[in-house]
Amino acid sequence: MNIRRIASDALLSAIALTIFIVEAQIPLTFAVPGIKLGLSNIVTLITMYLLSKKDAGAVLLTRIVLGSVFSGNTVALLYSVAGGALAYSVMCLSSSALSEKQIWAVSIFSAIAHNMGQLMVAALVMRSSAVFAYTPVLVAAAIFVGAFTGISAQYTFLRLKNLRLK
Amino acid sequence: MKRKLIPALCILTALLLLPGCSEASKSSESQIFAMDTVMSLTVYGPEANAALKAAAAKIYELDDRLSATKKDSEVSKLNASAGSYAAVSETLMEQLKTSLEVSKRSGGAYDISIRPLVSLWGFDTSSAHVPPASEIASAIKLVDYRKIELSGSAVRLGEGTQITLASIAKGYTSQTLINLFREMGVKSAVVSLGGNVQALGTKPDGSKWRVGIQDPKNPSGLVGILETADTAVVTSGGYQRYFDENGKRYHHILDPKTGYPAQSGLTSVTIVCPDGALADALSTALFVLGKDRAAEYWRTYGGFEAIFITDDGNAYATEGIKGAFSLRETSYRLGFISKSGAGQ
Amino acid sequence: MKKVSSRRLIIIFASLLLVSLAWMALQRLLPRNALIAEVYSDGRLVHTVDLNKVREPYIFELPHNRVLVEHGQISMHEADCPDHLCVKQGKISGGAYPIVCLPNRVMIRITGGGGVDAVAGR
Questions:
Q1: C-alpha span between B306 and B272 (Å, rounded)
Q2: Cβ distance B213 to B222 under 8 Å?
Q3: Is B196 helix (H, G, I), strand (E, B) or coil?
Q4: Which residues of B touch C121 (CB under 8 A)?
Q5: How would you write B56-112 as a 3-class SS string?
Q6: Which residue of A138, B98, B128, C91 has the smallest Cβ count within 10 Å?
Q7: What distance in Å separates the CA atoms of residue A121 and residue A33, rounded to the nearest whole number?
Q8: At what angle do helices B169-183 and B276-301 cross, to 10 degrees?
């Protein structure tokens, strides 16, 4: 772990956090209460490809913890952890199977996983499987949002890949 | 792979949309306030509206004729004629016959001449209270079903004998409605007259009706669900109507022998029987008898099934009902009563 | 190491999207997960509401009764009947059992009554 790497991780965490907080201002509670768009995944994705999976995990964790501290919302933490954990796992798995020109696809897969994680937490919090009725809505939304964040990440990555971040 | 994918998707989507095409038969419902309770009638089929109209008229008619508290009712007129023979309608006669049969078979645990006692306690008004023991003792003397004599289409009540059909009228009414619906060509209907449920046929799609049995411990919950067709389901229980005085609870099902609310160890009895009037009478009779004597009654005469909920939180069902009854509230343990008398 | 073609990926996502949209269409067609409460006065239906869609609690007024409608539950808030059994019954959010104010002939019930067609009891 050299200083350059630490600084890069910190920088990326800050960006992720900013996106997260701004995104949290967008009220999505008409669908499932507590659900989030997941735009800060752009950063997680970029980190994974520019640095490593471990760095991506670290940045994600930092963003989740500080994000809930700054927004002061404990329930939101639960959603973030569930969504983030699943998104991260799927991200790791699919990035191994796909090329670096297919970041957009990895993004969609992890966006779907992210939303499903949030849905599962919602079901637990409300002690009812009724929320799963939202599954198709969230899958469709994940495909769109995932494509958007994925393409953003894809372009950013291609431009930045020659940066010496580590 | 791409070529096969699109048709596969089309089939998948079609399959997903298919369940949406299930057809539900049209039903008509009405709510009626009569006989001191609320009644819900649900009828399926093209004759539904006509049937409901006819049903409402019939309910009001029977209420007027059978209420012991209405001065011009047939029952009141019969009560006023105590001591001499009076001609009664077929409607009244049928209920008298059924009541007397249950009275004989239950050894007097069921007795429609209990009116003096009911009035004494004030259960037929909104101010019930505990009467003095001496008054109860004198009232009991007037309670005796054997003083009701039937002769042809006439009835003679003994001196001082007064009857009330409150414990059989709703069941008789539900049976009358079912017969009426059948005559009008209705194939599928279910009525709930203040908790007296009776069903005609099955549901339009052929499946059985699902009748919930109220949980005495939790009035908005169910003990279990009964799947049935073409039967009446009637529950009697102390928890339905009672008053508290001096810290004690007094419920409305009086024991004709003691003059006090029946303490038979039962919280509720549910009778499942094709005859609505009989189901109604039996539910009161068996409640007073208590589980063991009720089981004996069932073994001797049959013609119905029963579910008992005891004061100690257990549920017992006569074995004929196995398979049709499923427990929903898991705080009850279900036992079965067999024909042979073994195992309780 | 291009193991999976981008074309294939697009197909997978497009299919998923299609299925999701079809599923959503189906959900719109089949009315589900609605908790419909009905208030009857004198046998006439005077108010229907899907309790699951209620955001702010409100009172439904009748000449002799007041019904409190909340998210997921409904109850008789006030009544001028002598015994107040209807008010004591509390809130219902299901079950086939209605709240009834006999003297004023008001009934509140929830349809789709918990999987049963009728309840034997009182």
A1: 6
A2: yes
A3: strand
A4: 195, 213-214, 219, 235, 237, 240, 268
A5: HHHHHHHHHHHCCCCCCCHHHHHHHCCCCEEECCHHHHHHHHHHHHHHHHCCCCCCH
A6: C91
A7: 11
A8: 110
Q: How close C69 gets to chain B, by Cα (Å)?
A: 18
Q: What are the structure tokens assigned to C24, written together?
A: 């959503």
Question: What averages of pLDDT result for each successive group of 10 residues across chain A (166 residues)?
Answer: 90 93 69 65 92 93 88 72 90 88 92 88 67 82 90 90 77
Q: How many CA atoms, within 13 angstroms, populate the side-chain half-sphere of residue A166? A: 11
- Max alpha carbon distance in chain A (Å)? 49
Angle A146-A106-C21 from CA coordinates, rounded to 5°: 45
The fold of A3-160 is: Arp2/3 complex 21 kDa subunit ARPC3 (1.10.1760)
Cα B69 to the center of its chain, rounded Å = 20
The rounded distance, in Å, linking the Cα atoms of C72 and A156 is: 47
A105, closest residue in chain C (CA to CA)? C9
The fold of C36-115 is: mini-chromosome maintenance (MCM) complex, domain 2 (2.60.320)
Contact B240 C122 (CB under 8 A): yes
| Residues in chain B within 8 Å Cβ distance of C89 | 219-220
Pairing of strands B314-318, B333-337: parallel
For residue A159, give every residue at least 6 positions away whose Cβ sits within 8 Å of its Cβ, in sequence order, or none: none
| Residue C107 near residue B32 (C-beta atoms within 8 A) | no
Which token pair is B273?
């029987």
Q: Which domains does chain B have, with CATH numbers?
A: 24-344 (3.10.520.10)
Q: Domain ranges in chain A? A: 3-160
Interface test with C, best of B222, B234, B241, B308 (most C CBs within 10 A): B222
Residue B86's pLDDT band (cuts 50, 70, 90) = very high
Written as one letter, the residue type at A46 is I
